[in-house]
Amino acid sequence: MLDTNLKSVFLLSRAVVPSMIRRGLGDIINISSLAGKSTFAGGGIYCASKWGVVGLSGCMAEDLRERGIRVSVICPGSVATEFSGRGPKDSSKVLSPEDVAHAVEAIVTQGPRSFLSEIHLRPLRKP
To answer: pTM for the whole thing?
Structure first.
């Protein structure tokens, strides 16, 4: 889980950042989770990996912003996907993948003088 959720973010960023630095612009958008902001029973490794993504994203944002590269992190709550690992969900009480895509769109359409550093995305109704 650490390799998938955290190490892959580090390795991919390390691969693309040099070309972004040469161009003097770019957006890196990492997907964490609200579990990267708070914990839950039995979620030790998952929460740790998502906390790591939040921390890595924040450090990258500070390191790269002067070079014109914006680094953002989206922390969605429960999303209705086949990867959620839980039973059937009431679709009115979870996020859809399109909700997360909308947050990505908000980040990439920001004006050139600002960036959304962190978005907490929650379903309107509590599960």
So the answer is: 0.91
